[in-house]
Design goal:
- About 35% of the residues lie in helices and about 25% in strands.
- The protein contains three helices and five strands.
- A five-stranded mixed β-sheet has the order 1-2-3-4-5, covered by helices on one side.
- Helix 1 runs parallel beside helix 2 (about 50-65).
Length: about 110
């Protein structure tokens, strides 16, 4: 897993899972704490995430809200979009461009 960027936009790639969760949490919390306005997470390079990785995203979302910021997900891969819809988190998280429910394959 890698995360590049600053306190305004981060690019996340690889696997966001139990092995990378602690490092990702540290980077995301630092970015939230050090910036102002929206924090954009570009997920176009993300291969997969598990429940722990999704928990890291939700934790960053809550922390951003407490800091008066908004966490915005950009370029969420279709596989991850399906998980957000299945867990109904697409209703809570800000997703740039939204999720095209009609274009997602049925599972």
């Amino acid at each position: 897993m890698y995360i590049r960027g600053d306190h305004a936009e981060l690019v996340v790639g690889g696997r966001l899972d139990v092995r990378s969760a602690a490092d990702a949490r540290t980077v995301l919390h630092t970015a939230v704490d050090d910036g102002r306005g929206d924090l954009v997470l570009d997920l176009s390079g993300l291969d997969s995430w598990d429940a722990t990785g999704l928990g890291v995203i939700m934790g960053a979302h809550r922390r951003a809200g407490r800091c008066g910021r908004r966490l915005v997900l950009r370029d969420v891969p279709p596989q991850m979009q399906r998980l957000l819809v299945a867990t109904r988190l697409h209703r809570i998280l800000a997703i740039e461009g939204g999720i095209g429910l009609e274009s997602l394959p049925r599972v």
